[in-house]
Q: What sequence folds into this?
């Protein structure tokens, strides 16, 4: 298509030239120029040709005069690109002094001034020279002002000035000039300081930018919604947040746990129980099984019966056995509580099992054994091995310390390994 178009244009130009030449040949015209006693007589055709030739000659002379300057500019550009490449490579490799030196030499070039100063600020901050970093950020041109703002906020956060850094990011977000990397930084920082409202605002702006991978955005979204549920000020706000989630979000175990714990803390124990029970019917989750035993002292008999019914689903679950131990301990059934806790400890030693077992032994008056249990809980939390209880200590009689071996089958009736973690 382009070839035919080019041929058509050439034919049109040739036809126009032939027609123009024929038209001018019939009457070439007459041109007379007089200036200070000089007279120039010529035809119009020759005058036009001379004018075009003069323009071409002037253009060639101008290009020849600019050639040394252009060559110098190209040489300078190549050197600048080499320095920029070397400086960025040094910055990525941790050679911050060299990066600062190479990038600093580019600050005088208008096209590279912004990126060079941003790199200098990063290198100086990495070296611990925040004064040099601030001076570089102060010189960043307006075209890179948003990037400079994020670097300044990150510098404040790294220095422990969290309030100042968050305030800077929030003001930029409110003004609509916070780039996506700053929005993600604000969301992460707000989660760290338990400010879910700010995290939600930053997350919404980040989602609108469509610059983050869907998996990363989804993971951050779950964390933000979880924090919002955990910090709901009252039951009405909690229910509004929960009902505002999508169905897929309300099925995520971490969000179900956050809602249940906050609902129980606000006195809505039935709602907390219902959400965990519904989630466990859909798909068994160890995290929810553990949370079910940590909802307070309300509805203990009902919760213990429900938890015991779950033994048919996950008889060897350490989280479920620990929950049963906690619930029966709250009910005062110490022997039954120790029975479940011993089974949980035999299945998998965890700090929660040792702590709950210590509570039971302490309630029975075995303070020495309880202290050993608490010591083992702390040891496991620190990554250290536990120690066996004193063989001379008073131990429960008749408690099966082995995990219950029950055959488990999947939805198709095929036997499968027991679910432990």
A:
């Amino acid at each position: 298509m382009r070839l035919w178009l080019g041929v058509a244009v050439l034919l049109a130009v040739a036809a126009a030239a032939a027609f123009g030449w024929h038209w001018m040949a019939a009457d070439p015209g007459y041109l007379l120029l007089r200036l200070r006693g000089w007279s120039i007589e010529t035809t119009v055709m020759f005058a036009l040709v001379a004018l075009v030739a003069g323009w071409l000659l002037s253009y060639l002379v101008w290009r020849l005069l600019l050639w040394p300057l252009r060559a110098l500019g190209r040489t300078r550009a190549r050197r600048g690109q080499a320095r920029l490449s070397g400086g960025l490579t040094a910055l990525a490799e941790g050679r911050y002094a060299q990066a600062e030196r190479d990038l600093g030499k580019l600050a005088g070039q208008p096209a590279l001034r912004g990126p060079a100063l941003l790199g200098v600020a990063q290198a100086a901050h990495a070296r611990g020279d925040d004064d040099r970093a601030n001076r570089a950020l102060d010189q960043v041109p307006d075209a890179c002002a948003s990037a400079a703002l994020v670097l300044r906020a990150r510098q404040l956060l790294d220095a422990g000035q969290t309030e100042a850094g968050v305030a800077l990011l929030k003001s930029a977000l409110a003004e609509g000039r916070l780039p996506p990397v700053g929005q993600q930084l604000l969301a992460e920082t707000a989660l760290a300081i338990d400010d879910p409202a700010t995290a939600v605002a930053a997350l919404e702006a980040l989602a609108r930018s469509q610059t983050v991978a869907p998996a990363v955005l989804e993971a951050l979204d779950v964390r933000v919604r979880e924090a919002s549920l955990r910090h709901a000020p009252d039951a009405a706000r909690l229910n509004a947040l929960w009902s505002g989630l999508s169905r897929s979000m309300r099925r995520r175990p971490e969000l179900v746990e956050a809602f249940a714990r906050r609902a129980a803390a606000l006195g809505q124990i039935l709602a907390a129980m219902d959400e965990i029970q519904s989630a466990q019917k859909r798909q068994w989750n160890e995290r929810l099984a553990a949370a079910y035993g940590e909802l307070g002292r309300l509805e203990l008999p009902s919760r213990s019966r429900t938890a015991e019914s779950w033994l048919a689903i996950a008889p060897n679950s350490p989280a479920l056995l620990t929950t049963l131990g906690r619930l029966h301990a709250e009910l005062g059934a110490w022997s039954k509580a120790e029975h479940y806790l011993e089974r949980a400890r035999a299945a998998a030693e965890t700090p929660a099992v040792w702590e709950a077992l210590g509570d039971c032994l302490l309630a029975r008056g075995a303070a020495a054994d309880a202290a050993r249990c608490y010591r083992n809980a702390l040891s496991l939390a620190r990554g250290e091995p536990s120690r066996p209880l004193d063989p001379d200590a008073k131990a429960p009689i008749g408690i099966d310390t082995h995990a219950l071996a029950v055959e488990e089958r999947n939805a198709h009736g095929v036997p499968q390994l027991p679910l432990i973690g």
Remarks:
- The longest helix spans residues 44-93.
- The longest strand covers residues 31-35.
- Residues 297-421 form a domain with the Serine Threonine Protein Phosphatase 5, Tetratricopeptide repeat fold (CATH 1.25.40.10).
